[in-house]
Amino acid sequence: MSFSPSGVQVLWASPNPGYTVKIEPESPGMKVEFRSDAHRSRIDVWWSGGPQFSIDERDN
Questions:
Q1: CB of 2 within 8 A of CB of 12?
Q2: What is the C-alpha to C-alpha distance for residues 11 and 47, in angstroms, rounded to an integer?
Q3: Cys-Cys link to 8, which of 4, 29, 36, 37 (CB 3.0-4.6 A)?
Q4: Nearest-5° angle of CA 27, CA 40, CA 12?
Q5: Domain residues of the chain, as ranges?
Protein backbone atom coordinates (compact mmCIF):
# COMPACT_ATOMS: atom_id res chain seq x y z
CA MET A 1 0.00 0.00 0.00
CA SER A 2 1.00 3.57 -0.60
CA PHE A 3 -0.72 6.23 1.52
CA SER A 4 -0.88 9.99 0.99
CA PRO A 5 -3.38 12.76 1.72
CA SER A 6 -4.43 12.61 -1.94
CA GLY A 7 -5.30 8.91 -1.81
CA VAL A 8 -4.31 5.29 -1.34
CA GLN A 9 -2.77 2.95 -3.91
CA VAL A 10 -2.34 -0.80 -3.83
CA LEU A 11 1.21 -1.43 -5.05
CA TRP A 12 0.90 -5.23 -5.23
CA ALA A 13 -1.14 -8.11 -3.82
CA SER A 14 0.10 -11.69 -4.33
CA PRO A 15 -2.25 -14.46 -3.22
CA ASN A 16 -0.94 -17.70 -1.76
CA PRO A 17 -1.65 -20.91 -3.72
CA GLY A 18 -5.37 -21.72 -3.59
CA TYR A 19 -6.39 -18.07 -3.08
CA THR A 20 -7.66 -15.40 -5.45
CA VAL A 21 -7.24 -11.67 -4.95
CA LYS A 22 -9.72 -8.90 -5.69
CA ILE A 23 -8.75 -5.21 -5.52
CA GLU A 24 -11.48 -2.57 -5.64
CA PRO A 25 -11.86 1.12 -4.91
CA GLU A 26 -14.05 1.68 -1.88
CA SER A 27 -14.82 5.20 -0.76
CA PRO A 28 -12.73 6.75 0.64
CA GLY A 29 -9.91 4.25 -0.06
CA MET A 30 -9.28 0.74 -1.36
CA LYS A 31 -10.32 -2.82 -0.52
CA VAL A 32 -8.12 -5.90 -1.02
CA GLU A 33 -9.69 -9.32 -0.51
CA PHE A 34 -7.97 -12.70 -0.58
CA ARG A 35 -10.37 -15.64 -0.86
CA SER A 36 -10.17 -19.43 -0.92
CA ASP A 37 -12.85 -22.11 -0.56
CA ALA A 38 -12.28 -22.13 3.20
CA HIS A 39 -11.15 -18.61 4.17
CA ARG A 40 -11.44 -14.90 3.39
CA SER A 41 -9.02 -12.14 4.38
CA ARG A 42 -9.96 -8.52 3.70
CA ILE A 43 -8.10 -5.28 4.34
CA ASP A 44 -9.68 -1.86 3.90
CA VAL A 45 -7.26 1.08 3.67
CA TRP A 46 -7.88 4.84 3.55
CA TRP A 47 -6.39 8.19 4.51
CA SER A 48 -8.06 10.17 7.30
CA GLY A 49 -5.52 12.51 8.90
CA GLY A 50 -3.02 9.68 8.36
CA PRO A 51 -2.93 6.08 7.14
CA GLN A 52 -5.91 4.02 8.38
CA PHE A 53 -6.79 0.36 7.93
CA SER A 54 -9.06 -2.42 9.14
CA ILE A 55 -8.55 -6.17 8.71
CA ASP A 56 -11.27 -8.82 8.67
CA GLU A 57 -10.53 -12.59 8.70
CA ARG A 58 -13.33 -15.14 8.24
CA ASP A 59 -13.67 -18.86 7.68
CA ASN A 60 -16.26 -19.75 5.06
A1: no
A2: 16
A3: 29
A4: 60
A5: 2-59
Rg of the chain in Å (alpha carbons): 12
Predicted model pTM? 0.88
| Among 54, 39, 49, residue whose Cα is nearest residue 1 | 54
Give pLDDT tens digits along the chain (60 positions): 999 999 999 999 999 999 999 999 998 999 999 999 999 999 999 999 999 999 999 998
Q: How far is CA 24 from CA 3, 13, in A?
A: 16, 12
Query: Which residues have CB under 8 Å from 51's CB, separation 6+?
Result: 1, 3, 8, 45
Q: What is the pLDDT at residue 60?
A: 85
